[in-house]
Design brief:
With 114 residues, the chain is an alpha+beta fold. Helices cover 25% and strands 21% of the residues. One of its GO terms (molecular function) is mRNA binding.
């Protein structure tokens, strides 16, 4: 599927690879343990992290698959209540792509081939 629409001078159209849903296996993973006992502990942890590392940078991945000749976005279900894109906070000094690979590997049990 190609990115349509008008393009600025000097920029080429980007292509997005969309693979059939049949190439993927879906299962359940054990829930990640909560880092905090209650909301006050979470606020204190976030304040402490901000004081030592500053503003945090996050990355998210959009996973497109093809099913019945239409693209679909894959999302993660969290605690049977809401859905989100895979990703999360980068470590201090970590590059975007490296951090996203780490997060996808942890969340989705993907094997990243380098």
């Amino acid at each position: 599927m190609e990115n349509g629409g008008a393009h600025a001078a000097g920029h080429s159209a980007a292509a997005v690879e969309i693979y059939p849903l049949s190439r993927y296996y879906f299962g359940a993973k054990d829930a990640f343990p909560d880092k905090d006992e209650n909301p006050l502990d979470r606020i204190q942890r976030l304040k402490s992290n901000f004081a030592s590392h500053g503003l945090r940078t996050c990355v998210l991945g959009v996973l497109l698959v093809e099913l019945f000749r239409h693209p679909h976005v894959l999302v993660l279900q969290v605690k049977n209540s809401f859905f989100k894109l895979p990703g999360g906070r980068l470590r201090p000094g970590e590059q975007d792509v490296d951090g996203l690979k780490r997060k996808l590997s942890r969340m989705l049990s993907l094997e990243i081939v380098r």
